[in-house]
Structures are given as structure tokens and as C-alpha cells.
């Protein structure tokens, strides 16, 4: 049975929401709108825009319009017949009230029109593109909120890029390889296999249509053959808003097979998808975090040829604003839940819920000061003891990397620096056992003008200085693992 997406109405407007949805087509005027945005809404708007291959200006137009119209909330009320994030009117051809109250549908309607407007009017600003779609009586409002819209875009981008770590040994030689998903219209997948001292190949295409824009691309060994496969979560795409499919392309060791649907309803909307072997049977399963006030965690176990029904394994873990991961922290062969609360120094906890094989246990604090604020946390076994550790990258001018090792019942160390110059602002850090010695190493994709890949090998007590392992891989806008 499919579980239903929760209502995205603000809690303060719940009663109005019920009235609006049960008394359609009429809608009540909003007595007020929330002063802050709904984190789930901005993620869905971002995913739809990327799914439709909207350029950065058109993406900004949607965030400007969403902030002006609703402060990026799915409002069940509005002026006259207006509803939803963009305050679209059912009696002006935008869809039924129920459709407009679906943020994926509403965003698809906005961006489909905005893309055409931008193509026909290339000199328009983002605000003018928004006005072209919205036809507001106050056309100047959209460009005036550009700064706020950009900050919301940055927040949404960070959430959609949550990837604390998945294995990438796609050819089964026990060395993690470099993978990039171009997404966009081409949706190619390129692989540069590890030789143990570098990543080989620049344009070696392993799949020519997998994981389009707006989807979440991950990797994991879902059939237990020792080779990591490609997995993509559609989240209910703009082309099919009622679905939330999961597709798999199995690795042959030299390429990925054609994609096959392994699940037809998992990680819908703004949920955060992950991959890991949570029951210890040697096959990676799929996990989704609702990442909202409910904090539910669902699991669908791999059968080797599909994923089973989604089942709730935890009812309060990794709420909105936190950074979740799935990894085996106690070395029992089952992947556990980890979340970084990412608060200030006084509230940057790391919480763990251990897998029993059929559920996740009670949440436990394993560290009380790690991965503060905007730092980028990752998980991996950096000392080779069979237990995953936590790593955080400052990714700023300091470019420091800190590690706290797992003891099996906690993470030890607060300010233990393992590298003092790795990952600058705008770069994408990752962990993987690049040389096959059983210890996860540092990887960074520089993106930008250089598109280099650097590796810092683990010694078990620190990371060596970065060495260039590839000089052109993982372009800006691509998903790199």
C-alpha cells in the first residue's frame, strides 16, 4: 500500500487548509502568511526546475515568484481563487484546486511557462520572467526579492545534494571509482575506474540515459554481486508528478545495463533518499527520510531483482535542517542511521540509531560537537577497523578536515584534524577507498574552471596531502560520487 504524502499546509493554517480543500472550488482569503518558508516546498520547486532543465535565471524566477506570492509555502488560501505556492487560479486554467495544491504540479506549470517566456525573451531579467508567467498587478516585486530568492535556492541546493557517502566500486576490484551523472537533457553516466594511483579515462560512458535533472543519483550493490550499481530516485518528477519511482542500472563491470524500475513509490516529494545494507544480507537496500517535523524513516529491502514494500523503521530521526546518512558504525554488518544536527557550536550533535535488521533502535547521541553550521559531513571507515567514522570538511579558506573515529558505541575526538588543506569553497568532497587498502580516503571534485579530482590517501591516523588523480572529470552541475 502506498503511503500518502503529508499535507504541506503550515500548521497555523491547518483549519483553513481543510476548509479550502473540502470546499473547492472556492478558496478563502489568507488572513496572514507564514513569515518563513517551508523547507519541503523549496526542495520540490528546485527538483522540478532541474527536472525540466530550467537554466539558472529561470530557476531564480520561480524562487522570486514563490517568495513574493506565498513566502514559499503551499497556501490553502489566497486572493479570489488563488491557491498554493505560486497562488495560481483554478478558474484561469492553471488546473483543479487539488492539482494546484500539489507543489510538483504547480511548479511544473510555472516552469513550463517560464522556460518558454525566457526562450522568447532572452533579455528579460529573472523578475521579468516571473512577471511574464504570473501577470501580477505589481510587476516590480519579483526582482526586488532576488537576494532572498538566491538564499533559498542555496538552501534547497544543499538539501538536494545531501550525499554523506555511498560505495562506488563499480567493477568489483575493491577500489572505489569516480562516477559522474550529467543529469540534464543528456543524462549520461561516466566512470573513471581507479587504478590504485589514479582514475583512468575521461569520456568513458557507462550509461547514456539515466537519472535526469531533479532526480537523486546514488550507487550501491543492490544485487549482491560485489559490483556497485547505479540507482536513481525520481521523487515524483515534473513529467510524472503522481509517481515516485526508483530505477536501477546494474553494473556489468564495464558498463551499466539499461534501467529497470525496482520500486514505484518511494522517497516522494522532498524526501531524502539513501542506500545501504540495513539487514546485513549483502544487498544494499533503499532508505528515505521524510526530513520534516515527523522525522519518519522508511526502508525497502532489496530482493536482488527489486525493492520490497516501503516499511517504517523509525518514527523520529533527521528532521528538517539536519544532514542524514546511512552507514555501519558499530561493525555488525548492518547499516545504521546517522544524522548531523548541523547547529552552532552549542548544538552540533551527531545522533545514531542502530539497525536491528528489521528496524532502527532508539536514537543515541554519539558526539556533541561535530560538523558545525555549513560544514560538509561525510561517513566512512577511515582507519580500516570495520566501523564507519565521521569526517567533516570546512570547505572554506581554511580547508580543514576533521575526523572522529567510531568506538562502536560513540565517536571519539572533537578537534582532531587529519588534513589542513583539502576542499575549498565550491568544491565537492567525498570519501572512498581509492587504493583498495581497506581505509577510506579523501576525494574532492574541484568543479569550476579546472574540473580536477584530487585524492588524499588515509594512513589510518591522518590523510596525506592531495594528489591529482584526474584532470578533467565531474563538471559543474553534474552529480559526482
Automatic annotation (TrEMBL):
Question: Is Signal tagged as a keyword?
Answer: yes
**Database matches in InterPro entries:** FG-GAP (IPR013517), Integrin_alpha_N (IPR028994)
Alphabetical keyword list: Signal
Signal peptide positions (record) = 1-28
Query: Coiled-coil regions in this chain?
Result: none
Put simply, this protein is called VCBS repeat-containing protein
- Domain of life according to the entry: Bacteria
Amino acid at each position: 500500500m502506498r503511503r500518502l504524502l503529508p499535507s504541506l499546509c503550515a500548521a497555523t493554517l491547518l483549519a483553513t487548509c481543510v476548509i479550502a480543500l473540502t470546499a473547492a472550488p472556492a478558496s478563502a482569503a489568507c488572513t496572514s502568511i507564514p513569515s518563513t518558508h517551508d523547507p519541503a516546498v523549496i526542495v520540490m520547486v528546485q527538483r522540478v526546475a532541474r527536472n525540466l532543465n530550467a537554466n539558472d535565471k529561470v530557476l531564480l524566477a520561480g524562487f522570486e515568484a514563490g517568495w513574493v506570492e506565498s513566502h514559499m509555502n503551499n497556501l490553502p488560501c489566497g486572493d479570489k481563487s488563488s491557491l498554493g505556492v505560486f497562488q495560481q487560479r483554478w478558474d484561469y486554467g492553471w488546473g483543479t484546486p487539488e492539482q494546484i495544491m500539489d507543489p510538483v504540479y504547480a511548479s511544473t506549470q510555472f516552469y513550463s511557462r517560464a522556460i518558454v517566456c525566457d526562450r522568447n525573451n532572452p533579455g528579460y531579467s529573472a523578475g521579468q520572467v516571473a512577471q511574464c508567467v504570473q501577470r501580477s498587478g505589481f510587476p516590480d516585486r519579483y526582482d526586488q526579492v532576488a537576494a532572498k530568492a538566491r538564499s533559498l535556492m542555496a538552501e534547497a541546493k544543499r538539501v538536494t545534494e545531501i550525499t554523506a557517502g555511498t560505495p562506488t566500486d563499480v567493477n568489483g576490484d575493491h577500489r572505489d571509482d569516480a562516477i559522474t551523472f550529467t543529469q540534464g537533457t543528456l543524462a549520461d553516466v561516466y566512470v573513471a575506474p581507479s587504478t590504485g594511483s589514479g582514475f583512468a579515462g575521461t569520456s568513458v560512458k557507462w550509461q547514456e540515459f539515466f537519472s535526469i535533472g531533479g532526480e537523486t543519483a546514488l550507487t550501491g550493490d543492490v544485487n549482491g554481486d560485489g559490483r556497485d550499481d547505479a540507482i536513481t530516485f525520481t521523487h515524483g518528477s515534473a513529467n510524472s508528478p503522481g509517481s515516485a519511482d526508483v530505477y536501477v542500472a546494474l553494473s556489468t563491470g564495464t558498463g551499466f545495463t539499461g534501467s529497470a524500475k525496482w520500486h514505484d513509490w518511494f522517497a516522494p516529494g522532498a524526501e531524502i533518499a539513501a542506500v545501504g545494507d540495513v539487514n546485513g544480507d549483502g544487498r544494499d537496500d533503499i532508505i528515505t527520510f521524510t526530513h520534516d517535523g515527523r522525522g519518519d524513516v522508511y526502508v525497502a529491502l532489496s530482493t536482488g531483482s527489486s525493492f520490497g514494500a516501503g516499511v517504517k523503521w523509525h518514527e523520529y530521526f533527521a528532521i528538517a535542517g539536519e544532514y542524514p546518512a546511512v552507514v555501519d558504525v558499530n561493525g555488525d554488518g548492518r547499516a545504521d542511521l546517522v544524522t548531523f544536527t548541523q547547529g552552532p557550536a552549542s548544538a552540533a550533535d551527531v545522533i545514531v540509531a542502530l539497525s536491528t535488521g528489521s528496524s532502527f533502535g532508539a536514537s543515541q547521541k554519539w558526539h556533541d560537537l561535530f560538523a558545525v553550521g555549513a560544514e560538509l559531513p561525510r561517513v566512512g571507515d577511515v582507519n580500516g577497523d570495520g566501523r564507519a567514522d565521521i569526517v567533516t570538511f570546512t570547505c572554506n579558506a581554511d580547508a580543514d578536515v576533521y575526523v572522529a573515529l567510531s568506538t562502536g558505541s560513540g565517536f571519539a575526538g572533537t578537534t582532531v584534524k587529519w588534513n589542513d588543506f583539502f576542499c575549498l569553497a565550491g568544491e565537492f568532497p567525498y570519501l572512498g577507498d581509492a587504493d583498495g587498502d581497506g581505509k577510506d580516503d579523501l576525494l574532492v571534485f574541484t568543479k569550476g574552471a579546472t574540473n580536477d579530482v584530487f585524492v588524499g590517501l588515509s594512513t589510518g591516523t591522518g590523510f596525506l596531502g592531495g594528489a591529482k588523480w584526474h584532470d578533467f572529470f565531474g563538471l559543474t552541475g553534474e552529480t559526482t560520487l
